[in-house]
Structure prediction request, 267 residues.
Amino acid sequence: MRIRARYRVVPALLLVAALVAGVAGAPRALAADDAPSDADWQSWKANTNVTDMASLQRGARDFAGYCLGCHSLKFERWSRLGQDLDIPEALLVKDLIPPGETPAGYIISPMVESDAEKWFGKAPPDLSLMARARDPDYLYQYLKTFYVDPARATGANNMAFPQSAMPDIVSPLEGLKIAVYKTIETRGPDGQMVKEQVFDHFKVIAPGSMTAQQFDQFTHDLVNFLNYVGDPQQATRTSMGVWVILFLLLFTWVAWLLKREFWKDVK
Prediction:
């Protein structure tokens, strides 16, 4: 009876491992009522989940359609992308890989660097490691905070990256919006009240082809894909970590049983 009682620990350990796996793989979500306002854009979260294969596939499609014209992923091969995201090679060649490229090649933008510098003032950066360098939340905030600014050569500015050289390429999807400011009074160092213009919210002046919810999903998928590209092994590593923890738990239990058996006659 004592031996049977010991083996009851195994289901408990399996339950712990399942809970760890669920926590590691479960995507985070915000209820609509809890979504932060425009004024709190710096608190917006991408809620990425690199185990969401459908999201990654949509993100790969959107990157090829909206970003590849200017940005490269020079550390990622098309074949690796297709393998990791379960995209058949025929579909990869048909819908994602530019004409003249092969699955064995790296994901390189066709834009000539000298032309990019002439048009934008600087060459668009490679995005292979952008999610690791700047954080997925930053990329999410960047894509969602473009606004109309007639003073800029591109006609647009950005809250997350002011004076960005990148045009608002997502405006056909999201629509055109302006930044609305409000005046607040603060007390200056000399004790005098000072009026200050503070960003309050965005106002849409021309709708895009997507609803707000659809554009939010588009942005999430694109950032999720870039998060995957920055570390393609992270999902495998997380999954493997769960089994490592399970092994250590089981090994600890076995070691405790051996210690108890070896020292049972020691008083």
Observations:
- The chain is about 45% helix and 15% strand.
- Strands lie at 73-77, 106-107, 146-148, 156-158, 175-187, 193-207.
